[in-house]
Structures are given as C-alpha cells and as structure tokens.
Amino acid sequence: MEVAEFAAQAHAGQQRHNGAPYITHPVAVACIAAGWHLDEESVAAGLLHDVVEDCPYSVADLEERFGPKVAAIVDGVSKIERLEQFEPPGSRERRQAESFRKLLLAVAKDWRVLLIKLADRLHNMRTLANVPRRSKRERIADETLDIYAPLAERLGFQQVRDELQMLSFEHRHPLRFAALSSALERSAERQRVALPKIRRQLTAGLEKAGIKATLQSRSKNVYSVYRKMVDKDLSFREVDDLIGFRLVTESRLDCYTALGVVHEKFRPVPEKVKDYIAQPKVNGYQSLHTTVLAPNGNIIELQIRTKEMDQLAEVGVAAHWEYKSSNAAAHGGEAAIQHDTNKQLDNLFSMSKLGIEPGEFLRNLRLDLYPDDIFALTPRGEVIQLNRGATVLDLAYAVHTDLGTKADHALVNGTRMPISTKLNSGDIVEVRTAAHVAPKPQWLGYVATPKARTQIRHQLKEAWNAELVQLGARLLAQALQRCGGDFATLDPNRYLNYVRHNAGLDSKEQLQTQLALGIYQADVVARDLMGAKARTGGRAEGIKVRGDRHAGMVRASCCEPLPPEPVVGVMKRAEGVQIHRRGCPAVAKRLEAGDCVELEWEAGEDALYQAALRLECTNRKGLIANVLGQFGSQQVNIVTLSLASAEQDNPVARIELVVEVADGPQLERLLRTLNRIAGVTAAREKLPV
Q1: Active-site annotation holds for 53
Q2: The whole model's pTM is what?
Q3: Residues 191 and 87 grouped into a single domain
Q4: Are 232 and 127 in the same domain?
Q5: What is the pLDDT of residues 118-143, one digit of tens each?
C-alpha cells in the first residue's frame, strides 16, 4: 500500500478544526518537505507523522511497512507532540521544557525530525485562525515566536523563520499587524516608481563589469519592521531601509566585484557594510550586506551572494541535501548533513543531556537561540540574558528585584562602575548594594529592559503612596494638636467611623492620602474628630521637609525657598502642601490668619534641592569651560543647561541652568564664585517676576 493511501485510511473520519478531513494536514506537511527538496523518507514521514499519535498503529507497524528510518522520524515527532498536548495544571513550563528536550534528543539521532516538526508547525500556523479558543492561539503563537522561529534561524531556514514570525505576530497582535501591513503596502506603492530606474542602473553596471547575476527586489517583512521600531524606539517613518535588492551571482569573486559596482553607482552608508562571506554567521549564513543612498533619497539595502549561499540562506540545512546527497562519496551524504545539523545545535544538545530543571533549561535554551542579545555573567558564572543596550541596573533587576532596589554600583570586570553603565556580552558583573539606596525617577532613564522599567515604576508609585500616607498623618497630627488633642487620645472607632461614613472612604490610609493632597482639610477633619473637645490655639510641631521629591510637597515657584530659611506650607487642592518662605508676600494674609502648615527643614547630607540660574556673559573664548568647571569644583550637579550664543548685534551670551544644591548658603557661594569669573556680567537665581 502506498504511503499516501495508508495515511488517508489511517485518518479516515478525523477532521480538522475547520471541518476539513484531517488528512489535509499530513499532506500539507509532506508537500512542505518536498518543497524543501528533502528525501523520500522525509516526505513519507511528513505524511505519517500523526499516525502513531492519532490512529491505532504503532511505531513497529510503521517500521514493518515503511522501514526503520521513516518509523524513527515519525517516532521522534510523535513523542514531542504527545508532550505538547499533555498539560496538567501548573506544568506548562515543565511540559514545554520536556517537549524541546525530546525534540533535541530526537534531532541528535536524525536531523529530519526537526525539519518535519518545523513543517508541521508551519502548516499549523498557516491554519491557526481555525483554532476556536483565542488563548490557545496566543499560546501557540508565543511558543512559535519564542522557540520555533529561532530554531529555524539557527539552522539557516530564513524563509521559514520569516513566515513563522509573521504568522505569530499576526495572531498575537492583530491590530498592530494590520496597521503595519497597510503602512508597508503604501510605502511600497510609493517606492515602486523609483525601483525600475535603480534596477536599470545596477543591471547596466553589472553587465559592464561582466558579471552574470539575477536581481530581485525585496521588502522588509512586517515583523522585522515591528522589531526594529521596538528595539530602536522608532516611528514607522523613521525606519529607512524598507526596500532592497538581492543580487545572486555565479561565484564568491563575483560577489565582491558586484559590491564594488554597487558602491560605484550609489553612495554607501559606511557602518552598514557587512561581510558575512568572510565571516559567516553562527548558522552558516553567508552574504555581503550593504546599505546605499539612491539619488532620489531612498535608502536601499542590498544582499549579494552566490546561488548556493542563497539556497542555504532560504532553506538552511535542507539545502545541503541537494548539494551533498547527490554525491555521497565526495561530500559524506547523510552523515555530513547530520554532522552539520549537530554542529549548529551543539550547545542545545549538551543542555538537553544534563538533566537540569525545566526552568533553567528553558532559560539556557533561549540564551542560545538569541545571539543578538547581551549575555552578562554573575560572579558565580550564572548567565543573564538582557536586551542590547542594557545596563548594570537592568542586570540587577533581572537577578532579583531586591538587588535592583538597593543597587548602588557594580564591579564590571573588576572595575567599579555606576549602575547606569551599559553592558557587553561576556562582562562579569558584581552588583553592590547600599542600605540607603532607593529607586529614583531618573533610574527609568538608566534601563532598557521591560522588567526593570516596570519594577521601578511600581516601586516609585508605592514609595510615593507611602510618603503621602505619612504626610497626611503628620498634617492630621498637627491639626489635632491645634484642637488640643492627639492620636493617643483619639477614639480609634470614632476615627474609622468618620473615614467610612463621613468621608466615604475604605481606610485611614486613603483619608491620609487625600489630606496630603489637599482634597480634605486637616483642620476640618480634626475638629470633626475632636467634636466638643475641640479648642483652638496651640503650637504644632513642624513637619520635616527634605529634598525636592517629597511626596505631596512642592516648593513655591514665587520664592523658591531653601534651607535654612524659615518656611510655612499652604494647602493646594490636588497638589498638596506648597512650601513658601515665611516672609513671602503670597502667603502673608494666610500666615496672619493662622491658616498655614508649620514646616521645618530636616538636615541630611543627601537632601538636594533644585535652583534655576541665569548667567549673562560676554562672548569670550574658553568662558563656557571656565563656568562649567566651577560647578564641578563646588560639587554642584547640573540638571539641565541651555545656551543662547552671542551674535554680532548682541555680544551678550546667556546661560540658563537648573542645578541641585544642599541649601541656600551653598547656592550663595556658587553665585559669588560665578560672578567673579572674567566675562560673567551677572549670575543670579532665576525667579518668576
């Protein structure tokens, strides 16, 4: 009985999700295998790959009918599929890890297991829309994007990788996929006018140089555009190399000659010329890449390779079948192909045999499948995978949230470095912590990984909320003192009842937060809580103010107070406490009426306040360097700086800065020093008029 007839009979009566006969899937897998020019055994295994799993036949039955090699391939694929379908609660990571461990062990015996599995996954992705449950579609798409697409790339299956990525992206983010697809189509339509002229120029140049080559136009796929936008934080308009050409030549020498022709016709972008022929990628990919600027302003990417390189780039290890199976004596036949496959997956095979726990296995698997990411090491040798551009702080959060929260500095390859230091693959990083350290808003500018950014935002929000609760409690304590009471004498049941029934809130913390933000008035709440016991008068202890980032407090822009000047606070609805100098005209009436919050500065070496400065200078050589040098010598940090250069009709240059100082005296010393610099006509604090 023919293989196709046997498969059809075995799957008789079975249906796919869309109601089509199940045999359509094995036939499609076999056709994909045939399209990759695989051998008859691979095509037969494609037809039979689900027979053992879904039909009353054993591996022994297949071995008897179709031989041991076909049966072995089907057995390898079946074991993987059996694990993928079996998913007890809470075991997805374990199931996924064991599935890929089995896959790798099967591939180590016969490389065709992976090809049939990739063909199977490719057809399943092409028909994924028929799966009724959205969560299952998303899980399959995530798994494909996470594991199968990188596996295809590792084996050089660029054609398969691109399609798996596209299909996964379409099902995982359908709206983004549709929007980008539409934008790419519009862009391609605009470029279509320019392409024929560029093609004619290239063709003429190649013919003149005596080079036989085929020239194919190509455009970036949707997923690669999306990844570039995300990784480099670009808008669609900023992605410049959307179109390109592929030149396929007769020989390696022709590739380099063609590169010269291209650069003679069009101006190259120097940093985007790459030679993957002399230095192939880890998966064996070979090609010359260059990006050039066409006369009409288009940015064009060109790939230049031989026919064999092109075949290898598209279908990877499967291309070896055409070149090696035809001459086993010269090239080693199947053994050579198996050797090439094992070489590409050597690290993965080693991991699969170690028996490490599933979570670690999956992490290591991803490390090996994503060569463009950064892999830093901890002092114990643990490999940490990070986005390109990641910093010490990213690594700290990747290791443990607590390590990130308290990260102070690091030893990078033995040298002390700040937490904002960008890392390279292979760096050995030891993160050092300090008890006084806490996440700061500027940390968000230090990180490149989503995990670190999410954690920092969450921690900043929690710290902000905690500070608001504490500030609200202190405001209420002040108000209670003015009424002749305190928290110790306050009936807790009365307080809770007031929170729930009078204020309509769920907790004391919510009330205290709203007190801090000025939504509720502390004096009103205190009088209500004290009732008949309330009295006026009494001096409340001042609330401590420290640093510019105190939750619920802001220094008034009209007077910009700095320690040790006496200060008071006024409540601003939804803003909290506004800090003024005690002598500020804006609060004179409220101060006289006793309608202010008592405040006092809290001493602290790390408490910093921002001050805006304006310097007017004559245009003198070296002046800017002299000015900026004074900030370093006085240990004053510059937050922002803007410079308006002097012009012929106006020889005065203006420098405006925002700096961080510890107190008023430090600011005064800085201004005195700046005013003594030759060429500085005036240096003063910049306050609103």
Answers
A1: yes
A2: 0.51
A3: no
A4: no
A5: 999 999 999 999 988 888 899 899 88
